[in-house]
UniProtKB/TrEMBL annotation, chains A, B:
Residues 2-120 form the DNA polymerase III beta sliding clamp N-terminal domain. One of its GO terms (cellular component) is DNA polymerase III complex. Residues 246-366 form the DNA polymerase III beta sliding clamp C-terminal domain. This is Beta sliding clamp. PANTHER family: BETA SLIDING CLAMP, DNA POLYMERASE III SUBUNIT BETA. Forms a ring-shaped head-to-tail homodimer around DNA. Signal peptide: none annotated. It comes from Fervidobacterium thailandense. The keyword Cytoplasm applies. Belongs to the beta sliding clamp family. SUPFAM superfamilies: DNA clamp. InterPro entries: DNA_clamp_sf, DNA_polIII_beta, DNA_polIII_beta_C, DNA_polIII_beta_cen, DNA_polIII_beta_N. GO terms for molecular function: 3'-5' exonuclease activity; DNA binding; DNA-directed DNA polymerase activity.
Length: 367, 367
């Protein structure tokens, strides 16, 4: 038996956050459920897809009984968000869950064998550090779009975390481009791990929904936990080795271009109208103070644009997949950006002009 | 040859409206195109899927040449909406279209054999009448959701127009429910026709995008045109006979219930949480001053709600598909609505309490 009252608004929020851990439909219905469990005066709601787990604590008043129950997450989410009053009464007994609020009454079946709900391993004794929520959110935003959804190399289907020399560095790459963001932090120890893209999406949801100013990250070799107040997301790391990304960072630039990111984004958008109907290629022609962007489609025609630039070094003609340039520009907030070229076959480095700690690498394509 | 300048904002709007007539990809690429044609000092843009056609007139200044050209609608839409400046120069010559705006240059292939573009038949001499844009929009909104997307009876895949005794009546039904809206108008003549649902969607787009206060409707037996200022939508009517809907309008009610539409909609939303996971059925139990709504799912459980009502006549227990009730309620603006029952096997009539000219009929389902 378990009986408690709870505020609809808080329950709704915590159910929504916990539900995000649930994966696509599986054969085992217990994995489509939320586990409700009283623990030390609060109600704990848990969900897991065996890779990512969320634990959300909900404030409840006095409660009677100590049973746990597991109920279909979609169903309980749908019910709670539609309840008429803020005060909600839950009564669980012998597999039956009654929910009352105002004149609404629900009598629900729960999933039997609640003890089969996977236990969430979560060790507090690992290496621990804190980071501003907004900084971690920005770092994820700057790199996670480069992770691959498809690569056969599992290490590339995620974001690499590296703590080294007092810096936290996040890196993601799909083999054609790479993004890197770093931040100085007080981290006691050195370590690295890979988070799968699905886990990254979970953490991003946690970051955007929390009002906590700091996230506490704890790493204990096979799992990492991200704690923000009432919510803890526990993630298994990917058991792979990340490629040696430092080898692809270009050096010895021969052409440096400074440009306005809005000018470039606008011109690129227009040449992409043709490029996406053609060979998915845009040509950048760099001369003294002009960059000409052009694209062609044998079926539809061609587009030509030009924007003002400041150039140091050699003239250059080089081709890129415009989608990769566009995504890079969208993830840099600064107006002044730098394009650093070696030649028309080597990776281009894009970075904000006067901001440290973020860069983007993209391979050219052949003409 | 044809050469003109045009304002981006107006061109963008007219391209968007004309493009909506274009159907899904077909073997003939000319049907994916917009036809641009100078006619008496304006630029006419035309599109058709052979069933529905749109003619949009665009203001241009002085123009040179008198050629027409046809160009892929998606492409030109994509280009125009991204142009940098409001002033745009078009130059068409020998199958090649150049577009310039600011520093942007596009050189496009056009579709050859422009004379193959289907001519849009459109006779001004039929029966003609005008109706307030907002009234026609409301009438469509009230009935078109009841038209069937699937019925094997083609007559039900659209909206029936009937002009009779100075009234315009719109009716739509999928065989399980029916909606009817009528309006007194100065119409000289009697007629009826069926508009296919896709044509109705076109007219709805015209109504929501125009700023003209009145729509002129002209019917000439095989086509109907809807004119709103610069835009004319020409539609072929469906060559079918609409069923005799007057036979299903219930008479001799035994139970009349007056209720608040918000109360009902809220309670229904909650019982639907269970109904949609169960037998898609909601039971209404009507006693003196209470309507109890309930639903069941063998897998998930049950939900019960009650709302206050004012009842005239006999008690009743009757089952409905809740989706049909919900859609009806959403299309009535009034707070006070009437449910008029004959018995638990006969159609229910729903109407706003104090407003004439709109009613909704739905068949019950068996318990």
């Amino acid at each position: 038996m378990l009986k408690f009252t709870v505020q609809k608004s808080e329950l709704e929020e915590k159910i929504s956050i916990a539900s995000s851990a649930i994966g696509p439909r599986t054969v085992d219905p217990i994995l489509q459920c939320l586990l409700f469990k009283p623990v030390g005066g609060v109600l704990r709601i848990q969900a897991t897809d065996l890779q990512t787990s969320v634990i959300a604590n909900v404030k409840i008043g006095e409660y009677e009984g100590n049973d746990s129950f597991a109920v279909d997450a979609d169903l309980i989410d749908d019910i709670v968000k539609n309840l008429p009053e803020d005060e909600v009464l839950f009564e669980y007994s012998n597999g039956k869950l009654n929910i009352r609020s105002g004149k609404s009454k629900f009598s629900l079946a729960t999933v039997s064998e609640v003890e089969r709900f996977p236990s969430i391993e979560y060790d507090d004794s690992g290496i621990s550090f804190s980071i501003d929520t907004s900084i971690l959110e920005e770092m994820f935003d700057r790199v996670s779009f480069c992770a691959s959804n498809e690569s056969a190399m599992k290490a590339l289907n995620g974001v690499y975390f590296e703590a080294h020399g007092g810096f936290l560095r996040l890196v993601a790459s799909d083999g054609y481009r790479l993004a890197l963001a770093e931040q100085k932090l007080a981290i006691d120890g050195e370590f690295d791990f890979i988070l799968a893209l699905k886990s990254v999406r979970e953490i991003e949801k946690l970051l955007s929904s929390t009002t906590e100013p700091e996230i506490k990250i704890t790493f204990d070799h096979s799992t990492v936990s991200f704690n923000a107040g009432d919510i803890t997301t526990v993630v298994r790391v990917v058991e792979e080795t990340f490629p040696d990304y430092k080898r692809v960072l270009p050096k010895a630039f021969k052409t440096r271009v400074i440009l306005n990111s809005d000018d470039f984004a606008e011109a690129l958008k227009r040449v992409m109208v043709i490029a996406k109907r053609g060979n998915e290629k845009v040509q950048l022609k760099i001369t003294d103070d002009v960059m000409e962007l052009s694209s062609q489609s044998s079926e539809y025609g061609e587009a030509v644009e030009s924007i003002p630039i400041t150039k140091d070094g050699e003239d250059l003609v080089v081709n890129f997949n415009p989608k990769f340039l566009n995504e890079a520009i969208k993830h840099i907030d600064e107006k002044e950006i730098e394009f650093n070229f070696v030649d028309n076959l080597s990776p281009l480095q894009i970075n904000p002009r006067n901001v440290e700690g973020y860069l983007y690498i993209v391979l050219p394509v052949r003409a």
